[in-house]
Amino acid sequence: LNIMQKISDLSPEHISDIVHMALSDHVSFATIQAEYGLGEKDVKALMRDTLKAGSYKTWRKRVRDFGDRRETYK
């Protein structure tokens, strides 16, 4: 299955849950994958499609910045 197929199979509630989890600084990509089967690339694609462009860029910058500071972040 390609990423968009996986995402389109999710209910709006699950998409909302995943977005909230991804936006949280306390939930790792591994946790999201364990719960929903979406890998890091899938989550990034979902976020890109769901968030406004500016919000997505801000989120990606925060994930990158935190990732540089803490090796266990996300």
Comma- or semicolon-separated keywords:
mainly alpha; 5 helices
Structure characterization notes:
This protein has 74 residues and is mainly alpha-helical. Helices cover 73% and strands 0% of the residues. The protein has helices spanning 3-8, 12-23, 29-36, 40-50, 53-69. Helix 2 (12-23) packs across helix 4. The chain is globular and about 35 Å long. The chain starts with a helix and ends in a 5-residue tail after the last helix.
Topology summary:
Layout: H1 3-8, H2 12-23, H3 29-36, H4 40-50, H5 53-69
- Average pLDDT works out at 88
Beta-strand share of residues: under 5%
Level of helix content? Answer: over 70%
Sketch the major β-sheet.
Answer: none
> What is the general shape?
globular
**Rg, alpha carbons:** 12 Å
Number of separate helices: 5
> How many individual β-strands?
0
Helix and strand pattern: HHHHH
Which structural class fits the helix and strand makeup?
mainly alpha
Would you identify the regions where 5 or more consecutive residues have pLDDT less than 50? none
Span between N and C termini?
24 Å
How would you summarize this macromolecular structure in one to three sentences?
It contains five helices and no strands. Helix content is 73%, strand content 0%.
